[in-house]
Every structure is written in C-alpha cells, then in structure tokens.
Automatic annotation (TrEMBL):
Ranges of compositional bias, category Basic residues: 21-30
Protein name, as recorded: Tubby-related protein 1-like
Region (Disordered): 1-42
Domain Tubby C-terminal as annotated: residue spans: 51-290
Keywords: Cytoplasm
Family: Belongs to the TUB family.
Amino acid sequence: FYFLPAKASDSDDSDSEAEKGKKKKGKGKKKKEERPPSPDIEFDSLEEFVLQPAQQGVTVKCKVTRDQRGLDKGLYPTYYLHLDNEKKVFLLAGRKRKKSTTSNYLISIDPTDLSRGGENFIGKLRSNYLGTKFTVFDNALHPDRALPDMSNARQELAAIIYETNVLGMKGPRRLTVIIPGMGKNSERVPIRPRSDNDGLLMKFQNRKLDNLIELHNKTPTWNEETASHVLNFNGRVTQASIKNFQIVHSKDLDYIVMQFGRVADDAFTLDYSYPMCAVQAFAIALSSFDGKITCE
C-alpha cells in the first residue's frame, strides 16, 4: 500500500481535455504538464531566511535532490534543497555523519561545506537509538558550553516521532511533529532545554504542550479503484511512494503545513507554510530517508 498522488482529474491544476486540445492547436506541439512553481522569494541573508517561519499566506515550494554518486554516497548520500522555480535558488544541504552511534545529519547553508566546525553549519538532526524519534537543533552552543542564563544555548526546532507500524509494510507511516509555538510578531518561541529530559520529546511524552504546536501526517484515504492509499498533492507529487506525506494540525486538516513527495528516483518536492521554516521542513524530510526498521 503506497501513498499515491491523487489522480490528475482531482488536481486543482489539471487541464480539461478540451483545454489541452486548444493549447495543442494554438502552439502546434503539446507542452508537457509542469508542477506549479514556487513564488519568487527574495532574501538578503540565507542564514536568516532558512530559520525564519514562512510568511503567512505564502507556500514556499522547494525541491529535494539526493546525490548517491561516489564510493560512499550510496550509504551516505548528500541531500540538497532548492526553491522549485526557474531560479532554483540553493537553500540547504544535508548529510549523515559517518562515525555516529545514532543517525546524525548535518545541515549546511553551503552545498560544498558539510563540516560540523564550519561557519556554514546551520543545524542538525539527531535520532534515538531505534531511529524512531528525532530532534532538530539550530547551530548555537550545546547547553554544557552555554552561558548560565542559556541565552546562547542551542534551540530545539522540532521533534519528529514515527509510530511503530503494526501492519509492517502493509500500511502508511504515521508520524507526529512537535514544533515550538509562535509568539507575538509571528516569532518562534525559543525552546532551549538544559538536557534531553526537558526537550521537545519529553515535553510531548509528558503532555506538557504549552507553547508547542502538535502536528500529524494527514491520513490518506483508501481508493478501491486503484487499491491504494491516496492523498491529493495538487500536481506537486507525481510518483507513488511510502515517503509521500502531508503534515497538518488536527484543528484544520485542509491547511497543509508541509508536504513531501516523490517526482523522480532521486527528486522530491517539499512545500512548507507558516509556521514552519526551511530548516524544520528539510530536517523532517531527511528523517523520512533514514532507515527505520521498526517503522517499516
């Protein structure tokens, strides 16, 4: 059972047969159908932009590409995030660290510099031992090295929880995403825990959800005709994959905070909206690539 994109006829951006015919006659040759692109987005500082929540009312449409070339890229691919429009502006790169006891991904604002000590390091994604729970951090200091008032300590930007799938390979994944809440002026509430015992995962486990936003993947509907699980990605996703998902708030299932899905073997679209930022969305996507034996 896979998450299939909804049929073209269900998609908001599909043309009717008559319209396709008109276009054909007018231009002499059929133009291939394209994904709706991202609006042009301009920013002065890449570092600031990737950590800022998307503007309200704007969906930032991106593309994730996976580079598996090279001796160790099969095991440790590099992932790149670009704006999905003509300019293809680079936003982020991510790669799994090699000598780490748990899955640990570095996220950088330079496609050629994925080192922990480099000045382009912008955040990281770290998993638990089972690979079912993840935490996303920014690039500030570890609590042990921070000032006593924690003002320069790293923030937790998200927690991602994959539920063990009792159906094994037979059902879609279920995931929960916890992100900091939003304060005045649409700014993220800083979450700077002194230890893991006070982090997003423990807050969620203990149901201490003040100043936090709890999100879940949208449950796909079962389609008898195609015998598969279906979600409508409005033309942004073109291939069936267990990795395809949409993230929503339980109070508004129609507002897509983030969606992610396959368009080619090593290419995926990733779209995010307020209150999410690029680093949060990219890290959630990276977690979906990680091998979770217990979730499959």
